Amino acid sequence: MKKIIAATILVLILVFTIIFQTEISEFVIFNFVYKKEIIIEDSNQYKLNSNFQYLSETQNFLPNNKKELIDVLYTILNNGWDNFTFYCGTNYTNCIDDIETISRNTDFLSILNNFVHPFNSYNVIYTNYNNFGRITIKVDKNYHEHEIELLEKKVDEIYNKLIKDNMSVREKILAIHDYIINSTSYDSKRAEAIASKDPNFIPVYQSHKAIGPLIQNMAICGGYSDAMSLFLIKMNIPNYKISNDDHIWNFVYLEDSWYHLDLTWDDPVLNTGEKLLIYDYFLIPTKKLFSLKNNHEFEESIFLEAVPESNR
Questions:
Q1: At 120, is the secondary structure helix, strand, or coil?
Q2: Which helix (H) or strand (E) holds 87?
Q3: Residue 15: is its pLDDT beyond 50?
Q4: CA angle 82, 44, 100 (to 5 degrees)
Q5: Is the dihedral angle over the CA atoms 43, 143, 177, 307 positive or is it negative?
Q6: Is the pTM of this model over 0.85?
Q7: What backbone phi and psi angles, to 5 degrees, belong to 157?
Q8: Contact 149, 97 (CB under 8 A)
Q9: Which residues, 6 or more positions from 92, have their beta carbon under 8 angstroms from its beta carbon?
Q10: Which tens digits make up the pLDDT trace of 154-181?
Q11: Which long-range contacts (CB under 8 A, 24 or more apart) does 263-272 make?
């Protein structure tokens, strides 16, 4: 009987020792190692100081829920960081599952690009994590340095040519809207290849980026919206992009209200090849957008500013 009691006591001592050592290890990891490894660099010159309902900048790099995790990812992109390491909060038991889910959901990740400067948007995001909750994000940006240099010069050139001090903000947006459409053709071949998921299609133009409309004079919706975004940012006009599986367009804050701005649909493709400029999608409210019924559905839980008050 004494042997059994002694053995039981020994087992309990071993168990408590293991638990105690584990707690010490976790305490050391979370309070010393992790904090020392979080290196916060300065943001680049393309960081936007905007406030959105769905996500926001954060200084908490030990997220404790999915919302905080998304805010960390947004902060990484918005600051233009190429590499960043952060850690799951001690109470965030689903952290690794959530980062796995997010990293596999390319449609969701691409939405983060809508809220940052085009020059901080990503082409590929690489995610690495371990069982201790250490997460490293590596960003391969969508625009290379030589493209940025070329576009910045072009934007300045166009802006200085078109924009006058006595113009209203709406008139300035209109001038840029008209310039981009009048100097750009819709890249129908690329759009058709994307729609059909043609694996053999080799694009001729970078029509999905601002290089397309501003340098090569060819665009699909991604190119139109990125180009317009560059000018809106230059004019210090709050904006982001709204997207669904098939389309993307600009969303602009003007005169205390949000408006949709879709250059793609204002540059219709005619069978005759004739160039046409219309204003059906120039700074219109959401209700007007929905009434036109042209592929402008969006996820209302993300693009919250665009939800009509009657739907909230």
A1: helix
A2: strand 83-87
A3: no
A4: 30
A5: negative
A6: yes
A7: -60, -50
A8: no
A9: 63, 64, 65, 69, 133
A10: 999 999 999 999 999 999 999 999 999 9
A11: 263/177, 263/180, 263/181, 263/224, 263/225, 263/227, 263/228, 264/186, 264/219, 264/220, 264/221, 264/224, 264/225, 265/294, 266/177, 266/181, 267/181, 267/184, 267/186, 267/224, 269/186, 269/188
- Region of 293 (left: φ > 0; alpha: ψ -120 to 50; beta: rest) is left
Tell me whether strands 218-219 and 239-243 are parallel, antiparallel or unpaired. Answer: unpaired
Residue 309: half-sphere exposure toward Cβ, Cα within 13 Å: 2
Segments of 130-238 assigned E as strands: 134-141, 185-186, 218-219
Report d(CA 184, CA 238) in Å as an integer: 25
Structure tokens, 117: 């400067």
- Name the nearest CA neighbour of 112 among 141, 135, 83: 141
Give CA–CA dist 3/52, Å, rounded.
Answer: 67
pLDDT tens digits, one per residue of 210-229: 999 999 999 999 999 999 99
Integer CA distances (angstroms), 80 to 62, 104, 177, in order: 19, 22, 27
Return the SS3 of 92.
coil
What is the separation of C-alpha 262 from the centre of its chain, rounded to a whole number of angstroms?
A: 18
Cα dihedral across residues 262, 236, 74, 142: positive or negative: positive
Which amino acid, residue 285?
Answer: P
Query: What is the rounded end-to-end Cα distance, in angstroms, of the chain?
Result: 70
CATH number of 145-311: 3.10.620
Give the pLDDT confidence of 255-298 residue by residue, as tens digits. Answer: 999 999 999 999 987 665 667 889 999 999 999 999 998 889 99
Residue reference for tokens 């994000």:
137
In the prediction, which pLDDT does 19 show? 46
For residue 261, the cross-strand partners are 250, 282
Q: Given this model, what pLDDT does residue 44 score?
A: 96
